[in-house]
Specification:
5-stranded antiparallel beta sheet; 38% helix
């Protein structure tokens, strides 16, 4: 993703690489706000020496100071001098004393944001690219708890790392947001040797559920965890590095039917590690749902795969039976049945390859045209089927009957409309709107004979599927020049009204 494409960054003067670094920091804003017990706002430089807010995170650990979001708004005059000083000096700047914001006493800290880059293998700090401000609410004066003091110390350490360009760590792998731990979920502070100097009550509770019954403080976290993994054969190789705070990684511990995710944030000063923060969260239910979804998806894919195999077996049996029969009429009927079964099998084959119950129908239809080529070769015709437009993404409830309908229409065009031509053409035009799909099948054959009634089995199948399954309209036309044109008008909301379809993307 290009962060500059985000509307948050369009008002700024940031370069693409600077915006990418800042975008990575935005993902850590909630952690900083919770640890600092304060609102955190990130200001990016704009034209004419101004600054614009690109992020605003409210703390979950304290009352917010800003009831109105400040994102995309210019900086207030009372903060401009503080932010400008941090931006130009590259140092953390605190307000001289408590300031009043909308009648509330506040304490403001401005932290310059640097990004680190590697040049010829050497890591170096770039110039200041933005400024982070911490707005602490001083209206609720009380004696801070030990947890609050520890959280504030962690926040100050991270602010120092931001000013040095060492947080966020560019070596940290991207992790899925599902189950990501927050400060309120549990926090353990480690010293340089990996010994726990503080453990929040929620962190202790998480380890209690894993089976650890002793105190964490004063213990090496790796040693305390080792006793929980007795008998477990497979352990994440990154676990020791996370438990000692040596790598900015994330891993899971599973014991006694409980899963706890751990995220390590090494603390550094001037490039030297002096401790770490380990965030914890009980993600048992999250991981259970993920396993259920994986199992469900695998089951659905396997069902589609088996249905496809069974349908292909039926098609093969019909092909064998067709070869053994001596009646031309019976051969034609068996061939038509074989193509109908194969068309349905194509949809199930496509569904078995992905996780979604929707399919790219253009891909399916390409394979349907291969069946048409098979029909043409059997009748010794030279047919050029051509697709114009796009069907887009369709749910399986649409895809299966539509594939069968188009197979029937295109096959009829080849077998009957073009039977008298040495060189025929079939054009399938698809036009997708937000609420309607219009498909036309047009050939350059002899057209429908005057007075002829379309009441064959294929026609009955097409009418039943279009009107009954798709809720659409079908129309046969004979253009003035030559050939036959069949127009299908399918409302894309029909299945929604029946309560059976998933959301349909518009094109």
């Amino acid at each position: 993703m290009n962060p500059k494409a985000n509307s948050l960054f369009r008002q700024t003067t940031l370069q693409d690489d600077q915006a990418s670094w800042l975008y990575q920091l935005l993902g850590e804003g909630q952690l900083l706000a919770d640890l600092a017990f304060a609102d955190v706002v990130i200001w990016a430089p704009a034209q004419e020496g101004k600054f614009v807010a690109v992020s605003h995170l409210r703390p979950s650990s304290a009352a917010t100071l800003f009831y109105r979001d400040v994102v995309q708004s210019e900086i207030r005059p009372e903060w401009l001098s503080l932010v400008s000083a941090a931006y130009h000096s590259g140092k953390i700047v605190d307000s001289e004393g408590p300031e009043t914001f909308e009648g509330t006493p506040t304490k403001v800290r401005a932290v310059p944001i640097r990004a680190k880059s590697k040049l010829r293998g050497v890591t170096q700090s770039d110039s200041v690219l933005a400024v982070l401000t911490r707005h602490a609410n001083l209206s609720q004066s009380r004696i801070p708890s030990r947890q609050e003091l520890t959280f504030n110390d962690c926040a100050n350490d991270l602010f120092t790392m931001i000013a040095e360009g060492s947080f966020p760590d560019h070596d940290a792998p991207s992790a899925p947001p599902q189950g990501a731990p927050r400060a309120s979920d549990g926090l353990i502070r480690l010293d340089e040797e990996g010994r726990a100097t503080f453990a929040s009550p929620n962190a202790l509770s998480a380890f209690r559920r894993l089976g650890f019954s002793e105190e964490l403080e004063g213990r090496h976290l790796a040693e305390a965890t080792a006793g929980l993994l007795v008998g477990i054969l497979v352990v994440d190789e990154s676990l020791p590095l996370v438990l000692t705070g040596r790598a900015p990684w994330r891993t899971d511990i599973e014991a006694q039917g409980v899963t706890v995710t751990l995220r390590s944030i090494p603390l550094k000063r001037a490039g030297v590690r002096f401790g770490a923060i380990v965030l914890t969260r009980d993600v048992t239910q999250v991981r259970l749902r993920e396993k259920q979804m994986i199992t469900k998806d695998a089951t659905i894919r396997e069902i589609h795969h088996r249905v496809k195999n069974n349908l292909q077996t039926v098609a093969s049996l019909l092909r064998i039976q067709s070869r053994r029969t001596h009646s031309d009429l019976a051969k034609e009927a068996l061939g038509q049945a074989m193509r109908r079964v194969s068309a349905i099998a194509l949809v199930h084959d496509t569904l078995s390859e992905g996780l979604s119950q929707s399919v790219d129908f253009d891909v399916v239809f390409d394979r349907v045209l291969m069946l048409v080529a098979e029909v043409a070769s059997a009748t010794n015709d030279v047919v050029r089927p051509r697709l114009e437009g796009s069907f887009g993404i369709l749910p399986s409830e649409y895809a299966t009957p539509l594939a069968l309908v188009l197979t029937e229409l295109v096959s009829n065009a080849v077998e009957h409309g073009l039977s008298a031509r040495a060189d025929g053409e079939v054009v399938i035009a698809a036009k997708r709107a937000s609420d309607t799909l219009v498909v036309s099948v047009r050939d350059n054959g002899g057209g429908i004979p005057e007075g002829k009634t379309l009441d064959g089995l294929g026609t009955q199948i097409v009418r039943t599927l279009v009107q009954g399954e798709l809720g659409g309209i079908i129309e046969w036309r004979s253009p003035a020049e030559n050939g036959t044109e069949v127009i299908l008008t399918i409302p894309l909301q029909y299945l929604h009204e029946k309560g059976k379809a998933a959301d349909l993307p518009s094109v």
